[in-house]
Amino acid sequence: MLITAVDLISRFLFLLAILITAALVFIVTYDVGARNLGLTPPNWAVNTVEYGMLHITFLALPWLVRTRGHVCVELVLTYLPARARTAWELALHAISALICFYLAYRSGLSLADTIAKGSYEVRSFDMPMWMLFASMPAGFLLGGLQFVAFPLRGDSFFAGAAAEKGGL
What we know:
mainly alpha; two-stranded antiparallel ribbon; elongated
């Protein structure tokens, strides 16, 4: 039940990242088009794209873990005996999850700190700093939960032969 909820939330955040990406394509197209037509480009475009790319990274992270979309090198795992490979995979899942949980904690502290201080990012437009950190704790937390979910599903982030993933 919890794994299903994590998957659904991860998928929703990924779809949100897709929508943000589409919006950024339109913003960049408008900005470049305005410049080439001799019009004044919007002063908010560059900063909006920068902020959007930041959020896309963290919103997409859990789903990319779930679908094995991240880059990893499995050369050592490929040549390990089955029992050793299983042990290493479990250890790598645990280490990956712990790193994600630690980063969720640290980014959560930064989020709480910026909310408490009322900090603002002052550039082409003013924006509360908490908005920069808003997607980080959720992305890292759900990414860590996805690493935990692999062994619970009886699956592995490292599953499948190298040839199935395009070779080494």
